[in-house]
Amino acid sequence: MTHKSIKSHRHYDKAMHWGKLISITGSAQIIVQAVGFLSGILVIRLLPVEEYALYTLANTMLGTMTILADGGISTGVMAQGGKVWQDREKLGAVLATGLDLRRKFAIGSLVVSIPILAYLLLQHGASWITVTLIVISLIPAFYAALSDSLLEIVPKLHQDILPLQKNQVGVGLGRLALTGLTIFIFPFTYVAVLASGIPRIGGNIQLRKIANKFVDNNQTTDLDIRNNILLIVKKALPSVAYYCLSGQISIWILSVFGNTKSIAEIGALGRLSMFIGLFSVVFSTLVVPRFARQKDNFETLISYYSKALVIVLIISIFIIIFTYIFSANLLWIIGDNYKSLNFELLLVLLNSCLSLVMSIGLSLYLSRGWVLSPIITILVSLLSIVGGCLYFDLSNLREVLWLNVFTASIQMLLHVGFGYYKIYNIQKV
Fold it and tell me: In a 3-state reduction of DSSP, which class is residue 381?
């Protein structure tokens, strides 16, 4: 086939467009993940095991605080924004409404999360002064998290990818530089957390400028949009609250039944699965917004949904094979304290891959405004966790990781299946 005939092919322009988007997003995310990985390795190698256990608890709670402060708001903003993404004023109203709701939810998140974090830190040897410093160090990252995931929705809907990726690279480099400059001298949890959070403030400011190109930032909250977002929040919030517990079930279990060393080990192993976030970000940036913009056409949606899941599944298989072959080499990266955890590493990556497939299916159907009943999600998840807890030894790291794999498998089947169920319902209408 000649070069001319290739260019004249009916799918040539589409293929070139997708190739450009993937290359921009992929190359930037490789840099972001690589920089984040280096920052994480610095923290693992330079913090004592006991300090790294506290760091793992603090980071886990930061994720919980952020999820609770969202409560499904970002899903509502994506769903509402996907309907009006070409209207600057209406999209501005959607964003303003989402940000207002986020600020209100943040108060409740802090009230719930901070006392629990303080208790867990004290249980694992932290003094009251250390607890106070760690809580204060979480403020910059939490403040930025209140708005950055909502602000990112705007350029994602418009597929303005390059500025978004540049901003993420800048934040990552800032974190690496600040971590490198501080943690060598002050190897403490609160210093590592603060070094991670401060660059996010600068990135958040830049993100507002990127979003303002596509929205009227003079818009205020809209009651109808607020009610539409809250409809999704009311359906999603029970599941969100529950997933704050079940999403990091291994760390919560080990913080209660295990020891400080096990918490540090699972935190360190988790760092080696960070690169999987590359695929998640690429899909959430390129695939999910486009799925949200599609019309309610059965053939289009079933094709889009299936292709996305097959691609993720193939990627996951390659990751597992690679980990099995090169586990010793991967463990060398995080240091001698963790060099004997070959099989545990394989379980961590298997769990991460199952969660990746589940999260892509979940993100795709949520972007359409489809929400699985929280009664079903919580009941299925609770039964799987309780059943697993009765079978596995909760004081043993390997057993807890098997529990993770078991529950992740069930969640993947549930959410991927629900996406297909909703798409097939369109055919019946």
Answer: helix
Indicate the length of the chain as a whole number: 429
User: How far is residue 403's CA from residue 387's CA, in Å, rounded to a whole number?
Assistant: 9
Structure confidence by residue, pLDDT tens digits, 372-386? 887 888 788 889 888
* Digit-coded pLDDT (tens) for 200-256: 898 888 988 888 888 878 778 888 888 888 888 887 777 677 666 666 777 777 777
Query: Looking at this protein, which amino acid is placed at residue 406?
Result: F
Residue with tokens 């949606």: 301
What whole-number distance in Å separates Cα of residue 47 and Cα of residue 267? Answer: 12
Residue with the two structure tokens 């910059």: 140
Q: Please choose, from the candidates 221, 237, 212, the residue with its C-alpha nearest in 3D space to the C-alpha of residue 98.
A: 221
What is the distance of C-alpha 29 from the center of its chain? 14
CA atoms within 13 A on the CB side of 334: 28
Within a 13 Å sphere around the CA of 245, how many CA atoms are in the beta-carbon half? 13
E strand or H helix at 84 = helix 73-84
- Quick one: how far is CA 170 from the chain centroid? 19
377: which 2 tokens? Answer: 């999600």
Residue extents of the structural domains in the chain: 17-234, 247-429
Work out the number of other CB atoms within 10 angstroms of the CB of residue 213.
12
